[in-house]
Amino acid sequence: MPPCESCEYGAPEKPLMAENIEAMELWRSVKTQWRVGMSLVGLDYNVLFAMADRMEIDLSPCMLKKIQALEAATLTGVRKDHDERHRPGDQKTKKGSQSRRRAR
Questions:
Q1: Which residue has the higher pLDDT, 25 or 80?
Q2: Which region holds residue 89: left if phi is over 0, alpha if psi is between -120 and 50, else beta?
Q3: Contact 67/24 with Cβ under 8 angstroms?
Q4: Straight-line distance from the first to the last Cα atom of the chain, in angstroms, rounded to the nearest whole number
Q5: pTM of the entire structure?
Q6: Extents of the domains making up the chain
Q7: Does the first or last residue of the chain, that is N or C, have fewer Cβ atoms within 10 Å of its Cβ?
Q8: Long-range contacts of the stretch 93-102 (C-beta < 8 A, 24+)
Q9: What would the mean pLDDT of 68-82 be, rounded to a whole number?
Q10: In terms of Cα–Cα distance, which of 66, 76, 69 is closest to 39?
């Protein structure tokens, strides 16, 4: 699949290795399917197994490790972003918390 020139993420610096293309196709089909608590908890593996089956992708231990690596990278990015937005002493965080308390 050629990179989309209009995509906000642009083309990757390096093209995917052939052995990772199938993992990326599976990831793209499930990357919005998360278990959620106070924040993202992890990928919904029920959806992962169903989509792998539907896409006729063998969810081998190697494929599962690739998906788990993408999941871990996403969770790390989400948590880092959350931590940056909710630093102690941040006026936005304090103001937002006060607004939520008043709304209750």
A1: 25
A2: left
A3: no
A4: 49
A5: 0.68
A6: 18-103
A7: C
A8: none
A9: 89
A10: 76
Hey, what are 63's tokens? 């494929």
Rounded Cα gap, residues 104 and 102, in angstroms: 5
CA separation for the pair 28, 51 (Å, rounded): 11
Res 99 pLDDT > 80: no
Determine contact, residues 74/31, Cβ cutoff 8 Å: yes
Tokens coding 66? 């690739």
> Strands, DSSP E only, in 1-104?
34-36, 40-43
Structure tokens at 95: 């103001």
Query: Quick one: pLDDT at residue 5?
Result: 60
Instruction: Average the pLDDT over 85-101 and give the result.
Output: 59
